[in-house]
Design brief:
Helix content is about 80%, strand content about 0%. By secondary structure, the chain is mainly alpha-helical. The protein has one domain: Up-down Bundle (YheA-like fold). α2 packs antiparallel against α5 and α3 (about 35-55) runs antiparallel to α4 (about 60-75). The longest helix is centred in the last third of the chain and has 27 residues, at about 80-105.
Length: about 120
Protein backbone atom coordinates (compact mmCIF):
# COMPACT_ATOMS: atom_id res chain seq x y z
CA UNK A 1 0.00 0.00 0.00
CA UNK A 2 1.37 3.43 -0.93
CA UNK A 3 1.88 6.41 1.34
CA UNK A 4 -0.95 8.14 -0.54
CA UNK A 5 -3.33 5.29 0.23
CA UNK A 6 -2.40 5.48 3.91
CA UNK A 7 -2.85 9.27 3.86
CA UNK A 8 -6.35 8.83 2.45
CA UNK A 9 -7.08 6.21 5.12
CA UNK A 10 -5.89 8.63 7.78
CA UNK A 11 -8.06 11.40 6.33
CA UNK A 12 -11.13 9.15 6.46
CA UNK A 13 -10.31 8.12 10.03
CA UNK A 14 -9.95 11.74 11.10
CA UNK A 15 -13.33 12.57 9.59
CA UNK A 16 -14.89 9.72 11.57
CA UNK A 17 -13.03 10.39 14.82
CA UNK A 18 -14.91 11.25 17.99
CA UNK A 19 -12.83 14.42 18.29
CA UNK A 20 -13.95 15.65 14.88
CA UNK A 21 -17.57 14.63 15.38
CA UNK A 22 -17.66 16.44 18.73
CA UNK A 23 -16.10 19.49 17.10
CA UNK A 24 -18.72 19.51 14.33
CA UNK A 25 -21.58 19.22 16.82
CA UNK A 26 -20.17 21.95 19.05
CA UNK A 27 -19.56 24.23 16.05
CA UNK A 28 -23.14 23.76 14.85
CA UNK A 29 -24.48 24.62 18.32
CA UNK A 30 -22.22 27.67 18.53
CA UNK A 31 -23.32 28.94 15.12
CA UNK A 32 -26.99 28.79 16.15
CA UNK A 33 -26.47 31.89 18.29
CA UNK A 34 -24.98 34.89 16.49
CA UNK A 35 -24.19 36.51 19.84
CA UNK A 36 -21.97 33.57 20.85
CA UNK A 37 -20.18 33.71 17.51
CA UNK A 38 -19.63 37.45 17.83
CA UNK A 39 -18.32 37.14 21.40
CA UNK A 40 -15.87 34.42 20.38
CA UNK A 41 -14.73 36.35 17.30
CA UNK A 42 -14.22 39.51 19.38
CA UNK A 43 -12.22 37.53 21.94
CA UNK A 44 -10.01 36.00 19.26
CA UNK A 45 -9.46 39.41 17.67
CA UNK A 46 -8.28 40.76 21.04
CA UNK A 47 -5.99 37.74 21.46
CA UNK A 48 -4.56 38.25 17.98
CA UNK A 49 -3.87 41.95 18.61
CA UNK A 50 -1.99 41.18 21.82
CA UNK A 51 -0.01 38.40 20.14
CA UNK A 52 0.94 40.74 17.28
CA UNK A 53 2.21 43.28 19.80
CA UNK A 54 4.29 40.58 21.47
CA UNK A 55 5.70 39.32 18.18
CA UNK A 56 6.65 42.79 16.96
CA UNK A 57 8.12 43.86 20.29
CA UNK A 58 5.51 46.52 20.90
CA UNK A 59 4.44 47.34 24.41
CA UNK A 60 1.18 45.70 25.41
CA UNK A 61 -1.42 48.07 26.75
CA UNK A 62 -2.64 46.94 30.17
CA UNK A 63 -6.16 47.97 29.16
CA UNK A 64 -6.06 45.38 26.36
CA UNK A 65 -5.04 42.67 28.81
CA UNK A 66 -7.85 43.58 31.20
CA UNK A 67 -10.37 43.60 28.34
CA UNK A 68 -9.14 40.19 27.22
CA UNK A 69 -9.49 38.79 30.75
CA UNK A 70 -13.03 40.18 31.05
CA UNK A 71 -13.96 38.77 27.66
CA UNK A 72 -12.65 35.38 28.74
CA UNK A 73 -14.73 35.53 31.92
CA UNK A 74 -17.83 36.20 29.81
CA UNK A 75 -16.99 33.35 27.43
CA UNK A 76 -16.51 31.02 30.38
CA UNK A 77 -20.10 31.59 31.45
CA UNK A 78 -21.45 30.14 28.20
CA UNK A 79 -21.71 26.34 28.17
CA UNK A 80 -22.04 26.38 24.37
CA UNK A 81 -18.83 28.37 23.91
CA UNK A 82 -17.02 26.23 26.49
CA UNK A 83 -18.12 23.07 24.71
CA UNK A 84 -16.93 24.49 21.38
CA UNK A 85 -13.54 25.58 22.74
CA UNK A 86 -13.00 22.19 24.39
CA UNK A 87 -13.92 20.30 21.22
CA UNK A 88 -11.76 22.60 19.12
CA UNK A 89 -8.81 22.08 21.47
CA UNK A 90 -9.17 18.28 21.48
CA UNK A 91 -9.34 18.07 17.69
CA UNK A 92 -6.43 20.48 17.28
CA UNK A 93 -4.42 18.39 19.75
CA UNK A 94 -5.17 15.25 17.74
CA UNK A 95 -4.02 16.97 14.55
CA UNK A 96 -0.85 18.28 16.21
CA UNK A 97 -0.04 14.84 17.64
CA UNK A 98 -0.43 13.26 14.21
CA UNK A 99 1.73 15.93 12.61
CA UNK A 100 4.43 15.28 15.21
CA UNK A 101 4.30 11.54 14.50
CA UNK A 102 4.71 12.19 10.77
CA UNK A 103 7.45 14.77 11.30
CA UNK A 104 9.37 12.50 13.66
CA UNK A 105 9.23 9.68 11.09
CA UNK A 106 11.20 11.67 8.50
CA UNK A 107 13.73 13.71 10.48
CA UNK A 108 16.09 14.31 7.56
CA UNK A 109 13.39 16.31 5.80
CA UNK A 110 12.90 18.68 8.73
CA UNK A 111 16.40 18.76 10.21
CA UNK A 112 18.33 21.61 8.64
CA UNK A 113 20.12 22.59 11.88
CA UNK A 114 20.65 26.10 10.66
CA UNK A 115 22.37 25.02 7.45
CA UNK A 116 22.28 27.51 4.63
CA UNK A 117 21.50 26.71 1.04
CA UNK A 118 18.88 24.98 -0.98
CA UNK A 119 19.33 21.43 0.33
CA UNK A 120 17.04 20.18 3.09
Amino acid sequence: MSAYDKAHDLARMLGKSEEYKSYQIAKTKLEQDANNVRMLEDFRQMQWEIQMCQMTGQEIDETQVVQLERAYELLSMSPVINQYLTAEYLFAKLMADIQKIVTDAVPAWFDSRGKQGMVN
